[in-house]
Design goal:
This protein is mainly beta and 273 residues long. The chain folds into two domains: 2-93, Immunoglobulin-like; 102-269, Glucose Permease (Domain IIA) (Distorted Sandwich), CATH 2.70.70.10. It has helices at 2-18, 117-134; strands at 34-39, 48-50, 53-54, 56-59, 66-71, 82-86, 89-93, 102-105, 155-157, 162-165, 168-169, 176-178, 185-187, 192-200, 204-212, 215-222, 224-225, 232-233, 238-241, 253-259, 262-264. The strands form five sheets. Strands 9, 12, 14, 15, 16, 18, 20 and 21 form an eight-stranded antiparallel β-sheet that branches. It has a four-stranded antiparallel β-sheet with strand order 3-2-6-7, with no helix packed on it. A hairpin with a 2-residue loop joins strand 15 (204-212) and strand 16 (215-222). The chain is globular and about 55 Å long. The structure holds zinc ion. Zinc ion binds at residues 157, 173, 175, 177, 254. Zinc ion binds next to loops.
């Protein structure tokens, strides 16, 4: 029995190194997308920096080298070469453009479109709290490269939409909206640790989960949060219920994915059937 247990414990590593079912995210070298960059074999994984943030590195699918999994910001300019450092040495890659559509939303509560100075101050504080969660770097043994959908429902707003609230331009949509009904369960997209929890001005009841190697997921507008700060989670654990807290036009889950402190299209990490 013991021998079998040892083999089972080794199995994920063996599969990972043999390249079988080692599912990387879908590559999309555009603003808001993910670049997969192959690097030569070395004893230890290379340390990579992109825009001041450490980058996820996983064994390559061929099993002979490494692959950097790089999140590209929505603000990246297609005319500029993207610069990385690999163990301190410069490297670059190019990206192509992506024309995200516009979305115009009507918000009844004026404070969510024209917040007063006190509300702006609150938003700044909360934004700093969330950014510091995104910047955390932890190294669980296995990097997470695929995510499970955290709620069931049609997608009501895609990632990257150029947003206008009551005809005023605002930041582009940094996540995916899933139109699940009020009170529907929300589950963890991968194993991780809760690194932020709060009732935020725009995002409502929100948590951020760190999955390690620079990958985090965010869950917003919940009616109820059922986990604590620092709590360890497994894929599928209940973390809260769908709601309509914060700036919303109706109940839904806003699901965000951050890689190297960069918000990217969540669906690139979801196995497409
Ligand atoms: Zn959203």
């Amino acid at each position: 029995m013991k021998k079998f247990a040892a083999i089972y414990a080794l199995l994920p590593t063996l599969l990972m190194w043999s390249g079988i079912s080692w599912a990387l995210p879908t590559e999309s070298r555009v603003p808001g997308g993910v670049a997969l960059i192959d690097l030569p074999a070395s004893q230890t994984p290379p340390e990579i920096d992109y825009l001041g943030n450490r980058v996820m590195v996983v064994p390559s699918e061929t099993g002979t080298g490494w692959t950097a999994v790089v999140g590209i910001p929505l603000s990246a300019k297609t005319s500029e070469t993207q610069k990385l450092t690999v163990n301190g040495k410069p490297m670059s890659f190019g990206i192509s453009g992506k024309d995200y559509p516009e979305q115009r939303l009507k918000i009844k509560q004026r404070k969510y479109v024209e917040p007063d100075p006190k509300q702006v101050e609150r938003w700044r504080r909360e934004s700093a709290e969330q950014k510091s969660a995104y910047k955390q770097w932890s190294e669980p043994k296995d990097a997470v490269t695929r995510l499970a959908m955290p709620a069931q429902g049609p997608y009501s707003s895609a990632f990257g939409l150029k947003r206008f609230y009551n005809d005023q331009p605002r930041s582009p949509h940094s996540g995916l909206d899933i139109a699940a009904p009020d009170g529907a369960p929300i589950t963890a997209a991968a194993p991780g640790v809760v690194t932020a929890k709060g009732h935020y001005f725009f995002n409502g009841n929100t948590i951020i989960v760190d999955h390690g190697h620079g990958l985090s997921t965010m869950y917003c507008h919940m009616s109820e949060i059922s986990v604590e700060l620092g709590q360890k989670l497994e894929t599928g654990d209940l973390i809260g219920l769908v709601g309509k807290t914060g700036r919303v036009t109706g109940p839904h889950l806003h699901w965000g994915v951050s890689l190297n402190n960069t918000r990217i299209d969540p669906l690139l990490f979801v196995q497409q059937n």
